[in-house]
Specification:
This protein is α+β, with helices and mostly antiparallel strands and 147 residues long. It contains two helices and five strands; from the N terminus they run ααβββββ. A five-stranded antiparallel beta sheet has the order 1-2-3-4-5. Strand 1 and strand 2 form a beta hairpin. The chain starts with a helix and ends with a strand.
Length: 147
């Protein structure tokens, strides 16, 4: 093998090793980003639960929609100023948040409770876990994959 051929082969091996290293670094970065998003989603579910309980104390019932907890000046039933505008929009930290007010009994009456869902905006990119919070118990449940 000529000196040029040996150098070219060495260069190919070094470039391949560098690309493998970069791809591993990217996947580690993506895993850490997913972990941060999932941790933030759980913390935001707790924030939303506290906001709902505070809303009930102030207005005598649960909000009709997530946006009711958002900014307001002065605070009102439709803009209670308990969470920031980004969270009130339903999307934050790579997750989409869904609020469900009460559950209906057999007579169609809404029970005084609430629940939240937090789902990754982009499955396996912004998160791998789906979260559910039962407002009555305050318990947060996690599930891998779409429920």
């Amino acid at each position: 093998m000529t000196k040029f051929g040996a150098r070219a082969s060495l260069l190919i091996v070094l470039v391949s090793a560098a690309l493998i290293s970069v791809s591993r670094g990217h996947s580690n970065f993506q895993r850490s980003e997913i972990a941060a998003n999932e941790s933030a989603a759980v913390a935001l579910l707790r924030t939303l639960s506290t906001a709902c309980i505070t809303y009930v104390s102030a207005y005598g019932g649960y909000p009709s929609q997530l946006a009711d907890l958002g900014p307001g000046n002065p605070p009102s039933k439709n803009h209670a100023d308990l969470i920031d505008a980004v969270l009130a929009s339903g999307k934050k930290s790579g997750y989409a948040f869904t609020y469900i007010r009460g559950t209906r009994d057999l007579n169609g009456k809404v029970a005084p409770t609430f629940s939240f869902y937090a789902d990754p905006i982009m499955e396996n990119r912004t998160g791998t876990h789906h979260f559910y919070m039962d407002g009555e118990r305050g318990t947060i449940y996690a599930m891998i994959g779409k429920p």
